[in-house]
Write a structure and sequence with these properties.
Helix content: over 70%
Structural class: mainly alpha
Number of helices: 12
Number of strands: 0
Shape: globular
Strand content: under 5%
Oligomer: single chain
Order of helices and strands: HHHHHHHHHHHH
């Protein structure tokens, strides 16, 4: 039974891992521009399985941000995983040990959360281990190969590949923005505020990482207060 569940996890994790590989390859170009080696990129991706989080990490390194700034911006960008982990805690069997809970929490991503929460009954850690065994190595390997490719490809090609990552982020924010006016307005305000902060006398002296942290917390807090998600909508999304 355990082998069957583990293989089901690997089966469901394979398409996720292939998607991760493609995204991580573009992230590898960013990591290469930040000065990371293929091994460093592999380790970074292995311990931070998050596209937005890693992008913030690599760009912060490239901007010579302090360790505190890097830690804070990574925490802020990855904060949604705290909510996902909280939701998963409701699905654990009471007898599940702390180590299993910790390891599953370590591997929480949007996609892994989706396939886990969609299964019937209590969470079976064996299923998650099967999915993570495929997804995380492909994610990490993609980053390493992206760095290697960036070291050999012409500068123009590297620059073009760097743009691919921005396309990925647009693919993430455009669909929900088209469906929800509040999200669309929030995104547009974020773009405008980010640009304005590079020109304002006092704020422009802050590092890019600090500006991102301030704007993320400030804008998301204001939107949450002014236009909270109705309880009925929250129940539908569970």
């Amino acid at each position: 039974m355990k082998n069957k569940v583990f293989l089901e996890g690997m089966r469901d994790g394979l398409p996720i891992g292939l998607g991760y590989f493609a995204v991580a390859f573009s992230l590898g170009i960013v990591a290469r521009n930040a000065g990371l080696t293929p091994f460093q990129g592999f380790i970074a991706s292995f311990f931070c399985v998050a596209s937005a989080g890693e992008y913030a990490l690599f760009t912060s390194i490239q901007a010579a941000a302090s360790f505190l700034e890097i830690a804070l911006i990574t925490l802020v960008v990855n904060a949604r995983y705290l909510l996902m982990s909280t939701a998963l805690t409701q699905r654990f069997d009471s007898r599940t040990s702390l180590i299993h809970r910790f390891l599953i929490g370590f591997g929480v991503t949007d996609e892994i959360f989706g396939i886990t929460i969609a299964r019937q009954g209590p969470i079976n850690p064996i299923y998650n281990y099967g999915a993570l065994l495929v997804a995380i190595p492909l994610w990490s390997l993609g980053t390493s190969l992206g760095i290697i490719a960036g070291n050999f490809l012409p500068a123009r090609v590297v620059s073009a590949l760097s743009v691919a990552l921005y396309g990925m982020f647009l693919a993430i924010i455009v669909p929900p923005a088209k469906k929800n006016l509040v999200i669309m307005i929030s995104v547009l305000i974020s773009f405008a505020a980010s640009y304005a902060c590079t020109k304002l006398p006092l704020v422009s002296n802050f590092s890019g990482g600090t500006r991102t942290i301030i704007l993320t917390v400030l804008i998301s807090s204001i939107v949450a207060i002014i236009k909270p998600i109705p309880e009925s909508e929250e129940e539908e999304n569970k």
